[in-house]
Structure formats: structure tokens, C-alpha cells
Design goal:
Elements: H1 3-15, H2 28-31, E1 39-43, E2 49-53, E3 59-60, H3 65-77, H4 79-83, H5 113-120, H6 128-143, H7 151-159, H8 162-173, H9 181-192, E4 195-196, H10 198-209, H11 224-237, H12 243-249, E5 254-256, E6 261-266, E7 270-275, H13 286-298, H14 308-311, E8 314-319, E9 325-333, H15 335-350, E10 358-361, E11 365-368, H16 370-381, E12 387-390
Parallel strand pairs: 9-10, 9-11, 10-12
Antiparallel strand pairs: 1-2, 1-7, 3-4, 5-6, 6-7, 8-9
Helix pairs in contact: 1-13, 3-6, 3-11, 5-8, 5-9, 6-9, 6-10, 7-9, 8-9, 15-16
This protein binds glutamine.
């Protein structure tokens, strides 16, 4: 076992004895899950999957499908059209609540059932089969392998899905649903019944972490701005009426499902996923949540704590024998990074012998923000002769 996998294994072993909660029982097929199953996986920028525990255990994706079908709808229909059908505000209510906006009838957000059904109605396709095919194809592209629908779970959910059908009828009465009730809910039930493993979920999370490019297949699945929109909504709404406390404790956008899956995203760093069927009162996996919370603490992944890498671009200095030289910038140049570069540069420029040149080579930057480049250029106006910027 490599050292990183060993660290993950330690986290898993610490959490394993916890036995609070119970598997979902309102969908008969889910009640049959083995509550002892526990697994955890992490995928980084090179697409290497590190997994521990029951990582081959298969389970249905359930509500974790919601952010990915949302990504499909945003990609195909655009943000404005999607937002005309569903809001982006945390509901503070359980996942199956009737959280519809007064006046418009829009569901509060796409992570609760009402919102997800509205989003599923936006999936292109003439009938349930075509729409399901689009959904499965999208989920598969995120996972980097061909996924399929578990017909038994689908049938079990469809047979007992009166509450979701009722939600869809309400949506239709408000003119929020695109097309008929049955088409929307049947697409939704099938998307929830897609079979995954914790490895699949970690790759799917990683695809969101890297701006829509699957780090395993290297394929772009969705556009960068779509990935950002999806993560923003996961950040405020992904854990239902626990989303605020989750952000406080863990600090990562996440999505849970009633089968016991959970994924979380550390942008530019990792996709992580956990699986353990026992759920808390919000319908979130108990041990899965603890695993991700421990990982976030141990690896310093909370998004809202200071991360130096954003403020400090990589700088390589090559000094020339007669003074001067080349400063090569790499990584990401943001606003704060510009300030640091300028401070280094001023020191260097002050001691620059007459006739020597100091070149700042910004061509190796992986990403630069327009405002940061404008600020950097402006600083160069006031630099001594001999200091040049190459962008
Ligand atoms: N298919 C489930 C439902 O609609 C999904 C809910 C969930 O995972 N929270 O009830």
C-alpha cells in the first residue's frame, strides 16, 4: 500500500466502528443494503484512483446524480433557462420537501427532489428512453466508464414514488415542468438507479474538481463555467438541511444520496467519495460524512481557510552573470499573486546594474486572471529601464 493510500486507510479504520443511523427504508430495494459496507476513494489531478475498504461494492447513485444531470441541463440549455425553472437558494428543508418559491412555483434548488425533477424535465430527448440514454451517457462520461441502470431499484422506486410524482404534478401546475409528469419522474427515477462504486463517484467528483475535464480519460465532459455553477450550488445546497453545518465543518461542496454515497470536491486538488449505507436524520451517510470531514481536517482542504498556492504563483529566478536575469512565472497568477511578484521584482530591479536586463517571463503561467495581468502591466510602467515583461 502506497503512503497516501495508507493515510486513507487510517482514516477509514478510525471511523469504521461508528454505527449510528440506519439505511433508507422508504425504497424497498435500499432497505436490503448491507449496513456494514464502508469505502472511501480519492482521485487527484493525474487521475490515479486511491481506494480503501469495500471499493468494489456497487450501489445506486440516487441523489448524487442530481449535480451531474444539472450539469447536462446547464450545458445544453444555458444558465438562464435552467434558472427560470429552478432556484439556487438553500431550502433548509428535507430533500423531499415541497419547497416551491411563492409566486413562481420554482423549486428552491436543484439538489432537493422537486428541483431535480424540474431539471430532469430539461434533459433533451423525445421520450423517457432517449432522455435516460442522455443521462446515462453523461454520468458515464463523468465516471470514465459505461454505467447502467439497476432495473430492480428503478422498479422499486417507481412503484413507491408517489411523493415524487406528487411533486412533479405540483411543478406542472405551476408550469415549471417541461413536458409531462411521467416523462420527468421516470427519467428522474432511472437517473437515481444508475449503479456506481465509490471509485466511480470519486472520478465524477474529480471531473468537477478539474473544471469539467475527467482526469482519468482526459476528456472534457462539460465546460469550465458549468462545473463552477454546479459546485456553487452543491456548496450551498448539496447536503440538504445540513448544508450550512457541512460547509462550516468540512468546507467543500458535496452531494449525498440515500443509498449511502457521498462525494466532495476540493477544486484543483481532489475528488473524494465515500460509501456507507447508514444515514442520519437528514438522509446523509453518517460514516461517509465523518470520513470526508476527517480527510478535510487532516489534509487542510477547507476552501475558506487561507491557501498560499492561490496567493503565491510559482517563481523561478535565473540570475545572469553581469546582473539581471530572467524571472519565470508559473502556476496561477491572481490579484494577490501580482502583489507578491511586484515586491520580488522591486528588490531585484533596485540592484540592477546599468545596461543589464531583467526579463519577467509570464508565458509559462497555467492561468492568469485578466485583472491580475492588467495590474502587473501597470506596475511595469513604473519599473526602471531594463525590466521587461513577456506575456
Ligand atoms: N431517489 C431518491 C428519492 O427520490 C433520491 C433521494 C436522495 O438520494 N436523497 O427519494
Amino acid at each position: 500500500m502506497d503512503p497516501i493510500t495508507a493515510l486513507l486507510d487510517d482514516v477509514l479504520a478510525e471511523i469504521a466502528p461508528q454505527d449510528a443511523g440506519a439505511p433508507a427504508d422508504y425504497i424497498p430495494e435500499l432497505a436490503a443494503a448491507d449496513p456494514e459496507r464502508l469505502a472511501f476513494a480519492v482521485v487527484g489531478p493525474h487521475g490515479r484512483v486511491r481506494a480503501v475498504g469495500d471499493d468494489a461494492a456497487e450501489f445506486t447513485i440516487q441523489s448524487i446524480s442530481k449535480p451531474f444531470v444539472l450539469a447536462l441541463a446547464l450545458q445544453e440549455q444555458g444558465r438562464d433557462r435552467v434558472l427560470s425553472r429552478v432556484g439556487v437558494e438553500p431550502s433548509g428543508e428535507p430533500f423531499n420537501a415541497i419547497s416551491l418559491e411563492a409566486g413562481t412555483g420554482r423549486p428552491a434548488n436543484p439538489m432537493i427532489n422537486a428541483g431535480a425533477i424540474a431539471v430532469s424535465s430539461l434533459v433533451p430527448g423525445d421520450d423517457v428512453d432517449e432522455r435516460t440514454a442522455r443521462v446515462v451517457e453523461t454520468l458515464s462520461a463523468f465516471a470514465g466508464r459505461s454505467l447502467w441502470v439497476d432495473e430492480a431499484v428503478y422498479a422499486s422506486e417507481s412503484a413507491t414514488g408517489d411523493r415524487n410524482r406528487a411533486l412533479a404534478h405540483l411543478l406542472r401546475s405551476h408550469d415549471v415542468l417541461e413536458g409531462g409528469v411521467e416523462t420527468a419522474v421516470e427519467t428522474y427515477f432511472r437517473q437515481c438507479a444508475v449503479i456506481v462504486t465509490v471509485r466511480d463517484l470519486a472520478v465524477m467528483a474529480a471531473t468537477l474538481a478539474f473544471g469539467g475535464v475527467n482526469p482519468v480519460t482526459r476528456r472534457r465532459v462539460i465546460d469550465g463555467p458549468v462545473a463552477r455553477d454546479v459546485l456553487s450550488i452543491m456548496g450551498s445546497c448539496g447536503m440538504y438541511d445540513f448544508s450550512g453545518e457541512w460547509m462550516l465543518r468540512v468546507g467543500l461542496p458535496a452531494k449525498s444520496g440515500v443509498s449511502g454515497g457521498l462525494l466532495a470536491v476540493a477544486p484543483s486538488q481532489f475528488g473524494v467519495a465515500a460509501f456507507s449505507p447508514r444515514l442520519d436524520e437528514h438522509g446523509n451517510t453518517v460514516r461517509g460524512g465523518l470520513v470526508v470531514e476527517t480527510l478535510s481536517e487532516r489534509f487542510g482542504m477547507h476552501l475558506l481557510e487561507p491557501h498560499e498556492s492561490v496567493a503565491v504563483p510559482a517563481v523561478a529566478i535565473e540570475r545572469a552573470p553581469g546582473g539581471g536575469g530572467v524571472i519565470r512565472l508559473g502556476g496561477e497568477l491572481g490579484f494577490a499573486g501580482t502583489e507578491r511578484i511586484v515586491a520580488i521584482l522591486r528588490d531585484f530591479a533596485d540592484g540592477l546594474p546599468a545596461g543589464a536586463t531583467l526579463t519577467v517571463d509570464a508565458t509559462g503561467l497555467g492561468a492568469s486572471h485578466p485583472g491580475a495581468v492588467v495590474a502587473l502591466r501597470a506596475e511595469f510602467e513604473t519599473m526602471p529601464a531594463g525590466v521587461v515583461l513577456v506575456v
